[in-house]
Amino acid sequence: MLSDIEICRSSALLPIANVAIQAGLQDSEYHSQGQYKAKVSLDSLKRLQTNPTGKLVLVTAITPTPLGEGKTVTTIGLAQGLAKLKHSVMACIRQPSMGPVFGVKGGAAGGGYSQVAPMEELNLHLTGDIHAVTAAHNLAAAAIDARIYHEQRNGYDDFEQRSGLKALRIDPKRVVWKRVMDHNDRALRMVTIGRNEEGKTINGYEREDGFDISAASELMAVLALASNLKDLRNRIGRIVVAYDLDGAPVTTEDLQVAGAMAVSMKEAIEPTLMQTLEGVPTLIHAGPFANIAHGNSSIIADNIATRLSDFTVTEGGFGSDMGFEKACNIKAQMSGKAPDCAVIVATLRGLKANSGLYDLKPGQPIPDTLFEQDHEALKAGFENLKWHINNVNKYGIPAVVAINRFPQDSEEELLQLKAMIEMLPNNVEVAISEGFASGGEGTLDLAQKVVLQTQRKVTFTPLYRLEQTTEEKLMAVAEAGYGAASLTLSEKAKQQLAEFKKHGYDNLAVCLAKTPLSISTDGSVKGAPAHFDVPVRELKLCAGAGFIYALCGNVMTMPGLPDKPAFMNLDLDEDGHIIGLS
Amino acid sequence: MLSDIEICRSSALLPIANVAIQAGLQDSEYHSQGQYKAKVSLDSLKRLQTNPTGKLVLVTAITPTPLGEGKTVTTIGLAQGLAKLKHSVMACIRQPSMGPVFGVKGGAAGGGYSQVAPMEELNLHLTGDIHAVTAAHNLAAAAIDARIYHEQRNGYDDFEQRSGLKALRIDPKRVVWKRVMDHNDRALRMVTIGRNEEGKTINGYEREDGFDISAASELMAVLALASNLKDLRNRIGRIVVAYDLDGAPVTTEDLQVAGAMAVSMKEAIEPTLMQTLEGVPTLIHAGPFANIAHGNSSIIADNIATRLSDFTVTEGGFGSDMGFEKACNIKAQMSGKAPDCAVIVATLRGLKANSGLYDLKPGQPIPDTLFEQDHEALKAGFENLKWHINNVNKYGIPAVVAINRFPQDSEEELLQLKAMIEMLPNNVEVAISEGFASGGEGTLDLAQKVVLQTQRKVTFTPLYRLEQTTEEKLMAVAEAGYGAASLTLSEKAKQQLAEFKKHGYDNLAVCLAKTPLSISTDGSVKGAPAHFDVPVRELKLCAGAGFIYALCGNVMTMPGLPDKPAFMNLDLDEDGHIIGLS
C-alpha cells in the first residue's frame, strides 16, 4: 500500500473555492489561502444563524493504546461515508501540533484513504493559528517579566512616576503563566530565566520558569471555546497570569496586554476550510489537549458546520472518559449544542491491550502476538468497551461502535466482536469501519448506523451544572463520570479551592487532567476499573477558558523527543516535494 | 493628519490578483493568501530567467538616529513616484519582526501615504515566514538537546546499540545554536535549560543557553541569501550548531534535522506579494538584522522583481556603512547583481543629531530644539552625509540624496541643505522627498533623479573577494570600508580564526556587527570619525548563510520591552478592527 503522503499527493483535489461552494459558503464568506485552504469569515454566522442546526456526531474511543485507535481516520472516513450516502456533511477536527509531527506520533490528518488534504499543509504550519496562539501567549509572558523588571529596577514609586502606570507588584514566585513552544523540547520543561552574565545586570532578575507545548496554552482552550471575536477578547482579558504580593490575581487586562494578544489571534479565530481526499468540506480549528484542556475542536467551527450541513462529524481526544466527557460537560454547556450521537472507535488490538495482557509503548513495534486470535484477551478487554458504551449513554446520547479494521485483523475475530456488541442490552449499533483501506466506501455501514442513531431523541444530561461548587463538580466527574469510589483533594488543592472561591472563581467548569491510558488515574490499570480513588494533586485556574483543571497524577505538558525522532525521515525530494511524512 | 492605520484602512486596495497581473505574473505563478496577499511561486523564475534585468535601486541612509530616518517611507514613496512617472516598478522590503511592533519602534510598513498595505497584516503574522524560521530554528535546538540527553543517558555505546545511530558526542559546553523567539523578551537573553525539579531527572542535564529574537537566526540570513529551494536545503545542512568533544563541528546534517528544517521553511522561501497604498506591487521577504547579518531583503525577491519590472526599489538596514556595505560585499557577491543606484536618505534632524550636539534616545520624545534652525549643527552633521556619499561612490555606484521632509522642518533649512549637496564635487543628485505627506506625488523629483543616475554606467567594485583570507576581508571592511586606522582581533577572535580555517571555513564573506549609531564602533562618536580602531571581540561562524560575523562592541540580539510598551495601545474596536498600530 502507498504511504499516507503518497496517497494524498496522488489524489485529485478540488480548488478550495469549489469546496467552499459545496459547503454552502458565499464568496464573501471565505478567503482562499493558497489553492487548498481558506479562512472562513465569522461574518458567515450572521447569515447562517437562522439556519436549522444539523446533527452533531462526536467520535470518541475506547481507552486507547499509546498508538491510538484511528479516531481521526474514522472521523474522516465516516464523513466520507455519509457523503457517499448523499447526505450533506462536514467534518471538524483539531489542528495538529508540530511537536508530535516531528517527534514520535507523526501527523494527525487521518490516514490511508481517509485523510484531510493536503496532509503536509495540515500537519505543518496550516494557516498559522498555532503560531498566533504561541505569539500571543509569549507576548503575555514577556509583558510579565518586563513589568516585574521595570517595577523592581528602582522601586515601585520610581516606576509609577516614570511610567505613569500603577505598579502591579507581581510576586515573582507566583507567576503562573509559563512560556510555550510548538515543539517537543524536553530541555525547556524547567528553565531559569532572567539570568545575568557575570558582571552584567541588564537581564533583570532570575526566576524559575518553564515551557509547555503550545497546545497546552490556555489560549488554545480559549480559542476553542470562544463564540466570537468579542468573546475571545473578553476571555483573554480574564486570564490570570500571576498573583501580586498581597495574593490578589493579576490578569492580562491588568498588564494592558490583552488587546494586543487578541490582535495577534484575530485571524486565528477563523476556522480553516480544507477537504478530505473525497472532497468533503472539513473545518480545522484550534487544538487543545484532552487532559489539561477539553480536547475538542472549536465551538465556532461546529457552529458554522452544523448550520451549513445536515451532519457534522467531529472528534474528542482520547477515550470517552476524556475528550467526550469534556465535550459534554465543558464544551456543550458553553455552546448549548450537545452531540446527537457518539461513535466509539474500538480496535481488536486496542481491546486486547485493555485486557492488561500486553504492554504497548509509543515508538516501539506492536508485538505480533497482538494480532493473533486471542479470545481471552478480547473478552477481558471487552469490559472496557462496555464501560465506554455505558458512559456515552449516561449523558443520554445514542452510541455507535465503529470497529476500526487493521489489515492484520482476523475476519473471524472481527465478526465475533461485532456479535458481542450486538448482544448488549444497550440500544447500541455497531459497524466494521474500513476508512483507512477504502475511504468512504469502507464506512457505508457505519454511516447508515450513525444516521439511524441520530434519529433518536436525545435528552442530554451533563454530569454537573456550573452553579454547583467546584468540589461537587470534581466529584461528579470522578464518581458519576469515571465510576470512582472517591475523590481526594490534597492539602494544596484544598487551599487552592479556597483561594479561587475567595477571588470569585467558583462558577467555572472543571477539567480533570489524568492519564488517557486508563479510566482510572493509574495508566497501568486496564479494562473497566472500579473501587478506585481519584487523587487531585493540584488545581490550575483557567479563568479565560472558563474552567479549573485538576491534576490527577503526572500530566506531561511538554513532551520530549525520542532517540530517533520522526524528523529524521523528513526531507525535500529533487522536485521540492516533502518526503517521509506520515 | 490621520494615523498610519487610519490612512491605510481608508485607502482603496486592489484585489491581489490585479496586483499580480500588473506585476506581470501569470495565474499559476502565485497563490492568493486572503484578499491582499499572495505567495509568489519560485516556478515563475523558470519563465522569467531569460527576461532582461531591470535596474536595482538600493535605499540606504546617513548614520541614523535611534528613531530612524524614514528609509522605508522613502523606499515605498520612491516606488510610487517612479510608478507615477509611468515606469514599471516593484518594491522589495524585509518582513518586520513582531518584537519591535509590540515593543518600542512600532510597525515597519513605511508611514503616512507611503505604506505597504494592509499595514496590520505586514506588521503581524503576514504569511507566517518568520514563524516558519522560528519553528525550523527551534526544531534544531530541540534536536541538539534531545541528542545530548539520549547519548548521555546510558553512555554512547548504549545509545548506538539502542538507536542504530552513531553517537555525535556533542560537547554541551560548546553548543553554538541558541533558541529564538519573535518577541522582545529580555528575560530570555540568558537562561539555564534542562533543569530538574527536585527529585526528578527526566529533564536531562542543565546547561547555559539563551534566546535571540527570530530575525537574528542564521536561518533568516539563509532565507535571504538562498537562490532556490535546493540551495536553501543545502545551506541549512551546512549550519554548524555545536562542536563535539574533539572540537570538530557538528552540523544540522549530522543531526539529521536539516531536511525537516527545510520542510518547515518550504513555504517561507516564496516571497509575499502585497501592494503600496498607490498599488505598486511589493515583495516582502525575509528580515535579517543589519548587524549580525546582512540586513537586506532576499535575493529571490530581487531576482523576481528585477525580471518583472524596469525598476526595483529595495532597502538595506541602517546607514551605508551597515546594510549597504553588506548588500554590496555579501549579497551582491552571492547574487551576481549589484545595485545600479543608491538613494541616501538624510533628514535635517538626523544630520543635526550627527553633529553630536543632541542626544536622542529611542522611546523618548525628540527635543523641540532639534527642529529649530541651527546652521552650526547642520554643518557639523553634514560631514556624515558627505561620508556616506563617498562611501557609496567607493563601490562605483551612483548616489541620490533623498532629503526626507518632516512636517516641522523649515523650508529655508531644507533648501540650504539641498544647496550644500549640489555644491559637492561628486556626481551626486539630490531631491527633497515628501513620500510621507504626499505619497508618489511627493517623490516625483526624487524619482526623476533616480532614473537619471541609473543611466550611468556602473563599475561595481566590492571591497574584497571571497578568496582572500578572513583577516584580509575583515580589514578591508574596517579600513577601506569604514575608514578606520586599524582592526584589532582579540585573542579569542584569533583563536577562532585559526579554528575556522582548520575546519575549512576560509572562503566565506565577512559581516561586521557593530553599532549603527556611528560609522565607528563607538555609538557616541558622531559625524565622520577618522583614526579609530575596530576592535573585534569575537567571531561567529554562519556556514549556512555563508559568512563569518565579527562582534565589534556589544550587539544586542534580544531586545527588551520598555516601561510602557507599544502593545499597551493595541486592541480591537467594536467592529473587530485593529486600533493603536503605527
Describe this protein's structure.
Two copies of one chain form a homodimer. The first copy, chain A, has 582 residues and is an alpha/beta fold. Helix content of chain A is 35%, strand content 19%. The first copy, chain A, folds into three domains: 224 residues, 3-Layer(aba) Sandwich (Rossmann fold), CATH 3.40.50.300; 137 residues, Domain 2, N(10)-formyltetrahydrofolate synthetase (2-Layer Sandwich), CATH 3.30.1510.10; 82 residues, Roll (Formyltetrahydrofolate synthetase, domain 3), CATH 3.10.410. In chain A, the strands form seven sheets. In chain A, strands 1, 2, 3, 4, 5, 6, 14, 15, 16, 17, 18 and 19 form a twelve-stranded mixed β-sheet that branches. In chain A, strand 25 and strand 26 form a beta hairpin. In chain A, helix 4 crosses helix 18, helix 7 crosses helix 8 and helix 10 crosses helix 11. The model of chain A has no long low-confidence stretch (mean pLDDT 94).
CATH architecture of the largest domain in chain A: 3-Layer(aba) Sandwich
- The end-to-end distance of chain A, rounded to whole angstroms, is 13 Å
Full CATH superfamily name of the largest domain in chain A: P-loop containing nucleotide triphosphate hydrolases
Mean pLDDT of chain A: 94
- The portion of residues assigned to helices of chain A is 25-40%
